[in-house]
Amino acid sequence: MFRRSVFTFFISAILCLSASAQQQDTLSITLENVTYPYPVKFLPIQTEGQDLRMAYMDVLPTGKANGRTVMLFHGKNFGGYYWADVIKALTGRGFRVVVPDQIGFGKSSKPFIHYSFHQMAAWNKLLLDGLGIPKANILGHSMGGMLATRFALMYPQQTEKLLLENPIGLEDYRSFIPYTSTSDQYQNELKATAESIKQYYKSSYFVAWKPEYDKLVSVAAGVTNSADFPRYAKVAAMTFTMIYEQPVVYEFQHVTVPTILFIGKEDHTIVGKSLLSQQQQNQYGQYKVLGKQTAAKIPNAKLIEFDGAGHIPHLEVPTEFLVALLGGL
Fold first, then answer.
1. Which residue positions does the secretion signal occupy (predicted)?
2. Strand order in 302-306's β-sheet?
3. How would DSSP label each residue in 269-321?
4. What is the pTM (predicted TM-score) of this model?
5. Which of 56, 88, 94, 136 shows the smallest number of beta carbons within 10 Å?
6. Neighbours of 270 (CB within 10 A)
7. DSSP 171-219
8. Residue 150: enclosing H or E segment and its boundaries?
9. For the chain, what percent of residues have pLDDT higher than 90?
10. Contact 302, 260 (CB under 8 A)
11. Is 234 helix (H, G, I), strand (E, B) or coil?
12. Average pLDDT, the chain
């Protein structure tokens, strides 16, 4: 039932850029000119003297409602737009699906604040409370996996299941990645171009590149042409620091909720990979090993591995991923 191109909905509904945006190849840093697959609402948030907006999609079941909710946490280089097929599959099976863009990402505000997984988890709890949802299954991909783990640690009573799709943070990057200040990382972020982003995605995220993946690059690269890109780059540097300085790897044994890891075995993602020698790059980020190690740390965790998949199984092997996800739920 899932044997449709992974980007059928992505192309037709998720990423409908305006004609002028396509012509100029420019996106605003809050993606106003990117159409998400479902209506977007905003949660007002006040922090550090600033009024912010947290974007989210709240998608009701299309199949017979089962009374359960799944919350989807995106990765660092993405927003809620890349979950389209997952949302469709879940809602078709009766789940309500809530898909936030974390503060600093996607359509949400891009403030200069102290970025914290603890604070992000609290904001997501606030969103669920406001929607009247007492408990949810939390699915986190990449950076979203670190956030999902923090959420489950802070709010076990509100977490039905913890679902981790190729989460980063399975290693303590501080132990082998040279320290980079936020200021230095900001200078690195400013150098991003469409070409460098595509090369990074090709070398880091997928086993085999497909033309439809260019849609991901068009979003990530479109903001580099915005007049506000320096703000975007600064926030990207600040969230890089958050990932580096706030590991969850030492707390997996404290997770008390049912947990499933969905791991693409060909993933070699390392945050700060460019700072390592080739020999070091070959030593770390080995998800075919890290998945097993992490599952062993989390009490009663289940591990589901995907052959021939890299960092984003829900895009690269969508049929296998959705069957496994629905089975796990």
1. 1-21
2. 41-47, 50-59, 96-100, 69-73, 136-141, 159-165, 259-264, 302-306
3. --TTGGGS-HHHHHHS--HHHHHHHHHHHSTT-EEEEETT--S-HHHHSHHHH
4. 0.93
5. 94
6. 21
7. S-GGGTSPP--HHHHHHHHHT--HHHHHHHHHHHT-SS--GGGHHHHHH
8. helix 143-154
9. 88
10. yes
11. helix
12. 93
pLDDT of 244 reads: 98
Give CA separation, 248 vs 73, 95, 294, in Å.
16, 28, 11
C-beta separation of 250 from 48 below 8 A: no
Instruction: Please give the C-alpha separations between residue 239 and each of 147, 225, 247, in angstroms, as whole numbers.
Output: 12, 21, 13
Give the pLDDT score at 199. Answer: 94
Cα(81)–Cα(250) distance, integer angstroms: 31
Q: What is the pLDDT of residues 187-206, one digit of tens each?
A: 999 999 999 999 999 999 99
Q: In whole angstroms, what is the distance from residue 27 CA to residue 97 CA? A: 26
Q: Hey, what are 296's tokens?
A: 């062993």
Closest CA to 1 of 133, 117, 89: 89
Residues 74 and 310: their CA atoms lie apart, in Å, by 16
Count CB-CB contacts under 10 A for residue 236.
Answer: 22
pLDDT computed for residue 25 by the predictor: 63
- Give whole-number Cα distances, 209 to 45, 204, 268, in Å: 38, 11, 15
Q: Which residues does 53 contact at the CB level (< 8 Å), separation at least 6?
A: 42, 43, 44, 45, 108, 109
pLDDT of residue 10: 47
CATH architecture of 8-328: 3-Layer(aba) Sandwich (3.40)
pLDDT at 272 over 60: yes
Per-domain boundaries in the chain: 8-328
pLDDT band at 12; cut points 50, 70, 90: very low
